[in-house]
Design a protein that fits this description.
Elements: H1 3-7, H2 9-29, H3 33-62, H4 68-90, H5 98-117, H6 123-128, H7 134-155
Helix pairs in contact: 2-3, 2-5, 2-7, 3-4, 3-7, 4-5
Amino acid sequence: MAKSEKTDAIMLLKADHREVEELFEQFEKASTKARKVKLVEQICTELTIHTLLEEEIFYPTFRGKIEDDILDEGYVEHDGAKVLMAELMAGDPDDAFYDAKVSVLSEEIKHHVKEEEQPKEGMFAQCRKTDVDMAELGERMKARKEELKADIEKNGLPKPETRSFKGAEVLHGEPPTPPA
């Protein structure tokens, strides 16, 4: 692979997509509790890094250069995934709905990937039509990805923060207020 392909921002994100798809496939085949826990940790780690790369670098770079709606939907899709990831990381394979949560997370990610990778109309196709230097952006993202990996290895996954959800107490361990 040529250097520009290795560091191209979209190629980097697509490689992340393929990696997470493979982890979800492995989860479907997992037969032990320990294997499921390990795979969920890997899935959540990879998705956390990927989400942070998109939210910190990729999406802001293209704000005003592509359709705002597609970027806004990306943030909302990330927030939905963060809620499920927080639930999974706090849970256990013996918990009710654990496997269902992984399945729904997988479906949400498949939808998100489709929206980004759709030929001609998708986010990545729109991004390719801009004047952004994808190789330079990819280098910045690659460097940030290494920083995030090192930080997660040292300190664990960061507490997820949502941008689009109001009352996202579920991410902060606070019980919801019962209706009056």
